[in-house]
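Work Package 4 report. The design task specified in the project plan requires that, given a folded chain encoded as structure tokens, an amino acid be chosen for each position. We show below one input record used in the internal validation round.
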């Protein structure tokens, strides 16, 4: 089953110290890359000074369970152009105040606009409306 759990507007910036920062609506996450764990999202509670704007647009977060040919994880998708999306797996979900960090892994698995899932788009939108 695929459920869209969150949707909104994102902004991805880079600071002068070359740290990426992801804004999902009002939530702020530093996006460092560590040698031990790879790329991570870490909850941040402050506005970061922008040196470069790397991207902005819409985002979707999906919860995927028991679907053939797609990972059973939370999926974050960022719009990178009109009708183009970049997918990421959030292996332990989106970080919050209780679990402040989590891995983020780029993936080719994209749900938004994917013809494989077009027949389910109405169901996904209904599930999102129920969640609100």
């Amino acid at each position: 089953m695929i459920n869209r759990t969150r949707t909104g507007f994102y902004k991805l910036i880079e600071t002068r110290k070359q740290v990426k920062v992801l804004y999902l609506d009002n939530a702020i996450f530093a996006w460092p890359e560590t040698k031990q764990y790879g790329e991570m999202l870490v909850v941040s509670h402050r506005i970061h000074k922008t040196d470069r704007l790397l991207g902005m647009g819409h985002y979707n977060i999906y919860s995927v369970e028991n679907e053939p040919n797609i990972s059973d994880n939370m999926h974050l998708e960022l719009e990178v152009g009109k009708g183009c999306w970049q997918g990421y797996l959030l292996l332990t979900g989106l970080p919050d105040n209780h679990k402040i960090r989590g891995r983020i892994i780029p993936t080719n698995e994209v749900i938004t606009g994917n013809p494989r899932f077009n027949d389910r788009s109405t169901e996904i939108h209904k599930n999102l409306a129920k969640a609100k």
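The chain has one domain: 2-131. Validation will be extended to a larger panel in the next phase.
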